[in-house]
């Protein structure tokens, strides 16, 4: 692969002594290559990069990937279905009501936490390919009376994956990925709080997670995190809610804050302690780091119930929760912007009661390869365009590499 | 194993079927660390390609994450266990390190072991005895890369917090105490650093790259 040095040289001032020049070496062909160019480059530059590129992948990653992406999908669907909800007594036959929304959420969650499927999921295995995983969510989204067109499904999936990529990237400690998962599960339990049968299934999955991940070391969690990051590598789809909240740049890369609380178990950088051969501290010096870090207040809970503390993985589309932004130093609420923002508008395509009646008698869904159960429905199927092209798109442009 | 210019493969070693994990760490000189925790030591003659496995060191229970070697000594560190081997035959010292954090990278210089940790700390140990000589709250996130400039004792650390720091290691001639001072901090905006290396033995320039990046950034002192 050719190495091209860009000229003129860029000057990038460091925090203090700005006597460094920076040259940017762009790997010409690598930049155009389909397979993660940064793999090859990271490999040139040291152990961490090598491991990230090639090395051991954790065989325990799939449950976390599936559950977190599923959680994000449910957040989006819930928000969209609420936005278009019509009071039951006023709704026409083809309009969307609260009852319908709950029905869809319950059906999807029941399918997601199916016992047999969960058993398969928790077996040590490699991640599914991107295509296979996409198929899983296609089927999951259609596990109820709702139908999405191709464009909607594409955009839903893009938003899900970018949201989870953001959460994985910004996890303070590798173990916090479990807290992110628990945040998703806590919210899912809220969605189905009045359906005890499904609630049991979710609790059971919770227990399986605690059993499987509860005693893993930091290194093993970092391996899981690396496996996820490799899966999401080179995805830079711009999402308007992220752009608006300044957690993503216009080039599609996420903003990594250099302020805020340090991870639990890490000290605020800046202190050097030196010891003599007897182990007595003999010297202590300080240095300035350039970041603006503070001590964290408390650790999140890894129990079945508890305050997770971490905001990553909570519902950023709901009106009561702020988006996670450290850079601004103050939290921004989405209370007003959620409605005004209107980045998704559910427009109902009236699909023809006729067609709906034809299929409504018995509706059978094909098994997913991984064993989702059959269902049969007698209510009409509704086809939705979640993200009509006429509106300002909430996913702008194509992905940037 | 390849020639130093990468052109020709000179040796390959097949792992047993039981070693189902791939070889995780290799350097230009032996040993090789496996994710099963074993260290393979190779005999490489000065000339020729007659490379043989001279022994297998089984001390670590967890995956090897880094190996450094200096004449006569090689610290090897696994997820949370550091071992220093003398001439790769005899275990000098073992030590359980910061118990809940993984040691992700290790370097050896002038009898000093520099170890970078997942909680952002850099620790310096005496290679001969294993005693802790310095503790630095260096980064706010997982340290991915450490490098040493052998001519000057400069240490480079890169971590997920977007920062690269340059340090200077030294030994006090009177007390034989190990000293470390901070020289420089560089922030690579919005980048989780995955790799960092000095480009010359004096440590006057270094290169970094990060996750999701298709570029290598080179910095040099002016």
TrEMBL record, chain A:
Cellular component aspect of the GO annotation: cytoplasm; plasma membrane
Parts forming coiled coils: none
InterPro entries linked: OSCP1 (IPR019332)
Signal peptide as annotated in the record: none
PANTHER family, alphabetized: OXIDORED-NITRO DOMAIN-CONTAINING PROTEIN, PROTEIN OSCP1
Protein name: Organic solute carrier partner 1
Native organism: Meleagris gallopavo (Wild turkey)
UniProtKB/TrEMBL annotation, chain B:
Domain of life: Eukaryota
Domain WD repeat-containing protein 54 beta-propeller: 1-222
Entry keyword set: WD repeat
Keyword Glycoprotein: no
Cited PROSITE patterns: WD_REPEATS_2, WD_REPEATS_REGION
Keyword match Transit peptide: no
InterPro entries given in the database record: WD40/YVTN_repeat-like_dom_sf (IPR015943), WD40_repeat_dom_sf (IPR036322), WD40_rpt (IPR001680), WDR54_beta_prop (IPR049546)
One protein family per Pfam: WDR54
Chain positions of WD repeats: 136-177
Name of this protein: WD repeat-containing protein 54 beta-propeller domain-containing protein
Organism name: Meleagris gallopavo (Wild turkey)
Species lineage: Eukaryota, Metazoa, Chordata, Craniata, Vertebrata
């Amino acid at each position: 692969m050719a190495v091209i040095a860009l000229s003129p040289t860029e000057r990038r001032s460091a925090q203090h002594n700005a006597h460094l020049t920076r040259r940017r070496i762009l790997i010409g062909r690598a930049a155009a290559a389909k397979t993660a160019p940064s793999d090859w480059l990271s490999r040139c530059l040291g152990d961490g990069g090598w491991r990230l590129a090639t090395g051991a992948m954790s065989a325990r990653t799939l449950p976390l990937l599936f559950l977190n992406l599923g959680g994000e999908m449910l957040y989006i669907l819930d928000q969209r279905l609420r936005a278009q909800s019509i009071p039951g007594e006023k709704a026409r036959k083809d309009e969307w009501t609260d009852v319908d929304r709950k029905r869809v959420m319950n059906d999807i969650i029941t399918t997601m936490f199916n016992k047999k499927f969960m058993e398969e999921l928790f077996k040590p295995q490699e991640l599914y390919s991107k295509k296979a995983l996409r198929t899983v969510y296609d089927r999951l989204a259609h596990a109820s009376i709702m139908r999405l067109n191709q464009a909607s499904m594409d955009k839903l999936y893009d938003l899900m994956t970018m949201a989870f990529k953001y959460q994985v990237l910004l996890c303070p400690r590798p173990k916090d990925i479990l807290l992110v998962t628990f945040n998703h599960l806590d919210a899912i339990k809220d969605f189905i709080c009045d359906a005890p049968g499904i609630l049991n299934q979710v609790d059971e999955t919770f227990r399986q997670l605690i059993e499987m991940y509860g005693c893993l070391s930091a290194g093993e969690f970092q391996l899981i995190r690396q496996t996820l990051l490799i899966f999401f590598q080179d995805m830079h789809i711009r999402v308007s809610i992220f752009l608006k909240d300044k957690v993503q740049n216009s080039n599609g890369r996420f903003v990594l804050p250099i302020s805020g609380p340090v991870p639990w178990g890490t000290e605020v950088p800046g202190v050097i302690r030196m010891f003599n051969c007897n182990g007595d501290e003999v010297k202590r010096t300080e240095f300035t780091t350039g970041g603006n870090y503070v001590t964290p207040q408390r650790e999140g809970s890894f129990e079945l119930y508890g305050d997770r503390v971490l905001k990553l993985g909570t519902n950023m589309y709901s009106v009561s929760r702020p988006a996670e932004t450290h850079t601004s130093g103050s939290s921004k609420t989405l209370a007003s912007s959620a409605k005004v923002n209107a980045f998704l508008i559910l427009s109902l395509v009236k699909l023809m009661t006729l067609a709906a009646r034809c299929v409504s008698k018995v509706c059978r869904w094909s098994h997913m390869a991984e064993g989702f159960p059959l269902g049969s429905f007698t209510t009409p199927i509704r086809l939705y365009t979640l993200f009509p092209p006429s509106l300002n798109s909430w996913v702008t442009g194509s992905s940037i590499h | 194993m390849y020639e130093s210019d990468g052109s020709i493969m000179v040796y390959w070693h097949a792992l047993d079927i039981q070693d189902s994990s791939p070889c995780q760490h290799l350097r230009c000189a032996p040993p090789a660390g496996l994710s099963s925790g074993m260290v393979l030591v190779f005999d490489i003659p000065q000339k020729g390609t007659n490379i043989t496995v001279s022994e297998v060191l089984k001390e670590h229970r967890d995956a090897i994450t880094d190996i450094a070697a200096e004449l006569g000594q090689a610290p090897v560190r696994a997820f949370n266990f550091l071992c220093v081997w003398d001439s790769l035959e005899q275990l000098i010292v073992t030590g359980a390190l910061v118990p809940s954090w993984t040691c992700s990278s290790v370097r050896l210089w002038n009898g000093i072991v520099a170890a970078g940790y997942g909680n952002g700390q850099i620790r310096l140990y005496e290679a001969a005895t294993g005693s802790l000589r310095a503790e630095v709250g260096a980064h706010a996130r997982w340290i991915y890369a450490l490098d040493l400039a052998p001519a000057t004792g400069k240490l480079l650390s890169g971590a997920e917090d977007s920062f690269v720091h340059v340090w200077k290691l030294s030994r006090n001639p009177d007390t034989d105490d190990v000293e470390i001072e901070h020289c420089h901090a560089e922030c690579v905006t919005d980048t989780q650093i995955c790799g960092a290396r000095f480009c010359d033995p004096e440590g006057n320039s270094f290169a970094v790259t990060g996750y999701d990046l298709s570029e290598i950034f080179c910095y040099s002192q002016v």
